[in-house]
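User: I'll paste a sequence; please echo it back and then give the predicted structure.

Assistant: Echoing your sequence first, then the prediction.
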Amino acid sequence: MTDSFRQGDPPGDTEPREDEILDGEVVDDAAEQGDDDSINTESVNDGEEVAPDRAGATAPASAEHPDTALAAQRLDDLQRLNAEYVNYKRRVDRDRASVQERAVRDVLESVLPVLDDIQLAREHGDLTDGPFAAIADKLEASLGKFGLVRFGAVGEVFDPMHHEALMHAAWDASNPELPTDASTTTVVQVLQPGYRSGDQVLRPARVAVADPE
């Protein structure tokens, strides 16, 4: 009866077998690993920062945009064209001023014979008064506005840049117009006055010169 009683023991009263314990541990480990994975997933989903990959941490340097090089080239071209235009404008202005000055000189040179006649008339006393004297004065005043200046007088030191010596005369110490302390060739007579416009000599004064004794 004892053997039959042991054979009839209910399964719940028997001790668990080793293979069942091992299987239970495997199941428990898998469950724990599953719990860890769920925790890690929740941490990522909660917004926690994840360390970047070391291999992709350094981003490649971006190449220069083609429009940047094109803009620099266009700027260089514009600056060069601007410099060329400034130089061209200066050259044109200089040439224009030179042409104007030359035109004024040509007009003044063309009226010099008329001024010579007026000067001779004055020396002979023909322009002391009257309407013609007034016209002559107005003409000379108008030409003076363009820079016309008459020069050449007795007693001036001879200057080959402003005087043209047509004759050499003897020194006349009694002439009050001659300087008493003259030490070089001096103008003793003006045969025809000279004219200049600004720094430009239109015609040198034609004179007679003498050396002091």
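The first strand starts at residue 148 and ends at 151. The radius of gyration is 59 Å.
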